[in-house]
Amino acid sequence: MSQPRWTRLSDIHRQLEKRWQKGELLRAGEQPDEVFPLRLALKKPTASGLLEHFHDARRWATHWQCATSQNLVPEWRTVNHRQLGRNTLPVAVVIPTLDAALRQIGRQDDARRYHMLAADITRRFPVLAHWCRRKPLKVLALQAQWPALLATLAWMAQHPRPGLYIRQLEIPGVHTKFIESHRGLLGELLDQILPEGAIDRSTTGVGHFEQRYGFRRRPSRLRLRILDSAHRLAGLDDIEIPVEQFAALRLPISTVYIVENDITALAFPPTPSAMVIFGQGYGIGRQLADAHWLKDKEVLYWGDIDTHGLRILSQLRDTLPHSRSLLMGAATLKDHSHLWGTEPSPYIGELPNLTDDEQDVYRLLGTLEPDRHLRLEQEHIKFSAL
């Protein structure tokens, strides 16, 4: 017969450690009288359990008699049993103080370190007091990083939206790789300490850290090939330039191809008054948003025939509504049926900017074969079709 699972001292330790991991014991340090004395009920023998496991129950009660100390006080209750008579059993444990709870799990030093760190942080940035209360374990885990974090916050408070590359910052004791590797955390803290006008709240996430807090960003670049030798730039036909410079080009060509596969773009044949842009997936629409001169050009997009390729096409039309698809129709799909693959994570939402024929292809991808979405990758299409 298995031994009954009544609460033991090790279970109380686990309960206290769980409260520590939730930050409750660290937060209790601000107003400990609201939490302590802390009473924790014990799982104890029932009347039938006492009769069935009487000797185990006696050993269990002795276990709690030995556990009594200044840090932990069992609460006893006498029960009358019809067959066993009067027996005194522990029903709860009282932990008198926060210090007693910390001693039980060996966290006194950790708690002292947290309160010292929190005091220093809030002395320098009182507005971070609430953040420290919400995330006390994070405060403690970052003990070695706080000098650099606080130095960075102080510099940003004095220089909001600095208009520099992060690499240009010279903050004593802080190397710029530290800032780059702690952008997520710094974002949490900068949102608290900076004035509203210093934060671009239209952007979120680590990837937009620079834009959100006014740093210069690595320029987005666009690669293109000029397919007509008469329109080369200083004799160059394969060029990669910042997106802002591309927006100002205004090349005297009439046709612009946008192609997702790099090798396909490199293999594009010479074409009068034309150029090919190396695609950027979902980013291509944003990259071309300021290239207003493209609105007067014939624009053709060639991507994979799958849900994501059609989604990129739909999004491109938010910027260039007159753009057309190239070799992405039902005929091309069916002509290459022997090269079909399967999309591992298909997009299944609405694509409002597709033409009726493209919508038919979008539906076909999910209906030609049961339980899977088809795809035809661009590089599988025979090049002679171009």
TrEMBL record:
Please state every residue range assigned to the domain named DUF3322: 10-191
- Name by which UniProt lists this protein: DUF3322 domain-containing protein
Residues in domain Wadjet protein JetD C-terminal?
A: 214-384
What InterPro entries does UniProt report for this protein, alphabetically? Answer: DUF3322 (IPR024537), JetD_C (IPR024534), UCP028408 (IPR014544)
Q: Which organism is it from?
A: Halomonas piscis
